[in-house]
């Protein structure tokens, strides 16, 4: 069983629309994508961003690209032109998601 | 089969012009499309227009035209841009002025107006057209008196019309970024307005191109260190077939990287539901899209699906929502983090003492947690340096100004070894964004295409 931080296996890019941020997360292989499906849930992402995302997190799947898209509401303190945050456009949400650790081996 | 090559010229107001020049010179393109308008750009341009009614367009259009108009004449290149911002007619005048300066004649410059709907809001209200926030249904009442701009996202229609009138240059205000890229395809290939599959491919192409370097190795979260020569990045170029299939590439000899891995990051950028990305021209479904390696710096893109365009258009409004005041200064090792925390406590006590009235206050430690907030991990070592940044949101500009003045005394009367005081930062007006959906015809009835010739 191996505990791995997403930064070592995934790609992620984030961007903003109003007060919403989306983070697209990409797995390198189908096997790892299957693990993401179980490990990187909307609930877990919401919990990961405690203190940063105030609203709901929705997960959309794009298996074709081994990708999942997390839409995080209330994630920018009012939006890019209104927020006091330094990362006012949410560009760093992707790298911040890559801090998350998942169990890679357990799912066989 | 007929093919059209389109280049991406710009991804935002302030982007580099160098890649567009390379594309114009050696990219073999017939069109270059410039996206200059992020959500908040209109707010900046509105302020410019308030100061000077002849301004209010993206000022870098002057450089764009000076550098590229010679290629328009020489190679028959066409330029499409939404640099018109809050004043497309002003941008047209500026373009004509530069053409005259360069001694260029026989140039048709089209301009699309009608996306600016701020003067219509009252009428719409009277007609009972709801302008509730499209995400949470809030009534517009609370912000009505603070609206700074209101613009509709317009689709490809008027841009195609401008091309049909043989425009060399098309300048628009708030069109969707992707419509700028779709319009040449509809014009050249004669795609029907309900050919949802092809329109979807065209919009997808635009979506991949509209953020310039982001589809060519910029802001790449993968193996970014192996992306070569970002100083000379080539912005994406699409070679599109009549059936909608296209290859994304870039001009030879430029830096950056167009690969399946770089392109897929852009594919989902700022998209919410991947099966339903609504644009004025088609609803795009990217869930079955195939990205295929077609050689060095070449990615073949197929499989976009489309369905009927919506009966509504999105209107985005900006409303003033207070002022930002901030101060930034740095502290050096040893104990840099302890020093910035002590300085933060000092400033906060003084904020209380002078009675600075704020609605929100925030402290960040640059070099430690400013980009990752509560998720930043405790540093393992004593950091070499950390910067303190305190920001407040206030009702008035005067209150916001007060914060900066508390910083300089820290140099002599605070913790030791302060450097990098960034000076008095001017308060900045904060703008909230309001999005709503309105029946498309009430916007489209007011759209106009005007062509001027020199």
Automatic annotation (TrEMBL), chain A:
Matching Pfam families: AtuA_ferredoxin
InterPro entries: AtuA-like_ferredoxin_dom
Domain AtuA-like ferredoxin-fold: start-end pairs: 4-102
Annotated protein name in UniProt: Beta-lactamase
From TrEMBL, chain B:
Name this protein carries in UniProt: Acyclic terpene utilisation N-terminal domain-containing protein
Phylogenetic placement of the source organism: Bacteria, Bacillati, Bacillota, Bacilli, Bacillales
InterPro entries in UniProt: AtuA_N
Domain of life: Bacteria
Domain spans labelled Acyclic terpene utilisation N-terminal: 4-445
